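#structure-requests
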Amino acid sequence: MTGVCAPGYAEEQIRARARTGGAAVFPDRADYGSVLFGAGGGALGGAGGVPGVHDELDALRLVPPVFVPHRLERMLELGEEPLPQHVELECEFGGFRAPLPVYVSAFGSTQVAASDLGVAVGRQAGRLGIPMVIGENVVPVTGYGRLDGDDARGSLLSRIASYQEAGGSAGGVVVQQSTQDADAEVWNLVYSDPTASRLLEEGRLAFELKVGQGAKPGLGGLTVLRREAAARLSDQYRTGEIYGPEADAVLRYGTPGTFTEEILRQQIRLMRNNYPRARVWVKLPPGRDVTLAAEVAWEAGADAVTVDGAEGGSGWAPSAFFDHVGLPLGECLSRIPARDRSLLASGRIWEGARAAKCLALGATAVGLGRAALLAADEDPEDGLVRLVDALRLELRLLISALGKYRPRDLSTDDVWLPQPMSLRPHFTSLHDASEPLTSGVGK
């Protein structure tokens, strides 16, 4: 039948749902395990991601000033005119030292992350000395791992060990725990394991409480499992028959966890009491009350709060979430007053301009998620190292152009949000204007 729908109507999506039912709520199952989905696309493996929201970070422009008092201060310190290489990127966040304000953000148990790529990322992050977060559900789905066996591939222990191979003294490993991970006692396993003892002794081990993530705020972890694996994990997870009984695939549901202000406080206090030698990180989804959640976490003693914008990636999530659910990262940052506390930002970070904008809006450091996996996929030995080298150079050029020489000196004065012409005040003469045409974000 033709001519049923008016032009522009979502005919293909409707027909797909009529053919397959609930399976059409998600991206193409053929891409599972080889593609990382999220707002803005950027899929791993060549298949397209879902075009998503481009938040105000994309619209912001970095605006260098005419007068540069910080440059004068730096010139007096050096005894010469400063250059971009005089920008000092070394910093501390979340209790760790790092050569630049960058870390590897969490990726967990999906096939992309749990392959050799996860180990390759760990090895290169260790060489770089940047912190690395190991995401949720690795132990329940992939296993804890024993380094002398074939089951070590992609396991939690193999990622920790690969990070330590570099033998550096900067950075650290952050082990994330979700509701299902708590049932598997992931933190207890790591805290008492000899593989992590050196990190613990050096103060370079942290545990991150996952409250939620950007790509699917309000939902727990979702993965596609073969029926054999689903049967093996049936006592831990609920599954759904959305692909039909003939398919060797079921949808695995994870619980998002139930939080109130008091529950979050008590969880953080429990972490500090039970694991006194580990740092405490908290990962927040881009919820409308993210300001309050960050304040509660810091007041309860969190060493770092990570906010994951709606642009964040996911191994699997309903397509509607990518475009329609959660606050963009720029909005999250504008709602959270960091006040010299560790505020970490993740969500489509891969190059210097977006990273610098996050730093100007109050972030202490930015996380590389999909970008880290893509870089390791390109070159398992040096891809992430080169990506971070490019990011380091770009940050130095941009921060120097803004007349600053430390990331912490960036502020909202350094960014500008253009107003559409239709929203600008109307002036008969620019010489008579009493208001600027546009204003900085922080004004």
